[in-house]
Request: fold
Amino acid sequence: MNIPKSLQWQWVASYIVLIAIILVGLAAYITNAKDANVILATIVSGSIILIISLAFALTILNKTSKLLEDFSEGSHALASGNLEYEFPAYGNQDRKSFASSFNVMARRMRSNVRDLESERSKLSAVLETMNDGVIVADSEAKITLINPAAQQLLGIGADGYSKLANSSDENPLGHIWDHELRTMILNAVNATEPYIRDILLQPDRNVVNAIATPINHLGGEGVLVTLRNITEYRNIENARREFVSNVSHELRSPLASVKALIETLMDGAIDDKLVSEDYLSRINTDVDRMNQLVSELLELSTLESGRVHLDMNNININDSIFNVVRSLEHKAKEKNIDVSYPNPCVNLEVIADKRKIIQVIINLLDNAIRFTSESGKILISTSQNDGMVEVVVEDNGTGISAEEQKHVFERFYKVDTSRSGSGTGLGLAIAKHIVMAHEGNLLLDSQPGEGSKFSFKLRKT
Reply:
């Protein structure tokens, strides 16, 4: 890079003015002088001084110009990102001293830039691996920094994120479009304390705990937003409340019945043998129901915790199905339901916990009988493919709607609430977890009015 011509001409003009002053002085002296030798000596000496001063000035100008050109070149190199540039240290002591100072400045700049890059890399690594979302937005709720966790929460894809940094005011990708979050940021810009609130984000309906902290640095206004996904926590809290409510509901009825029966017996009904026997039988039934509920809750808790112990053996699944059908045959006959099942003599062996798999089949067949109309049909079948055996329990009963199918495997959920007294609502949840413990999955295919089909697979021996 060259020294600007205007600066060079300023030096030349200053020198010309100085010489002109000297010449004017000499001219005035010569005009007043009388001796020709004096005049000649003055002219000669003036000419010599003029030549020497001109040569000296040109030398200084050349050295100064070269120094400034080198300094300009070095400054341009540093500004362009060439932090390894070294100012050439040659010439006189002043130039070497200047070069040393310049190089010390360059080395410090290199050290500072490397420290900043290191800190930026650490910060980037932290932001990339954080489970919480982090957003930095300006005073207009325009995103200036966002980490992957926040992208996922806001539903911003990788292509959308690449547009954020270059987005214009007309491009909505560069702004927070969620109304609640945007309003929170705008309110926090000029606030003195952080804003904290829970927000429901679209489109995935994630509940996040948002903290918006104002940032005022070097005259700029912005907001740092942290987003913590508390959807699972909320779901757990809701499940806990529903669990307590459902258990209370399931226990309230038999406890109230037992209490009423006992009070009746204490009031004198115990002296009537027939009445007392009937009441004691009812009490025994209600106690059995409560005992069943507690047992199923304990079993479900064990299954959900993953601590269940499976006694895995080779079992004939067709024979196990036959034993289940025989145990529930009386229920099917009461409704004149025809139950078809595979031949127990056909040995189809699977690896499973016999007691628990029988529990699954009992639950599926009992539900099929319960929700199949009079003179209906139930088909239990087995088939094998790719080293797996599939067990299917199919009925032509009332069927289950698509909305109810989303919840049918949940604890205490009952498809037919009018029959709430016929079960605890835990059977299918337990069955699903037992099948999952066997590394399988309990599937449901049903249409309202066309029946239901439950199926699961077990490993063949």
Notes: Residues 36-79 form the longest helix (44 residues). The chain has four domains: 5-82, 130-229, 233-305, 312-459.
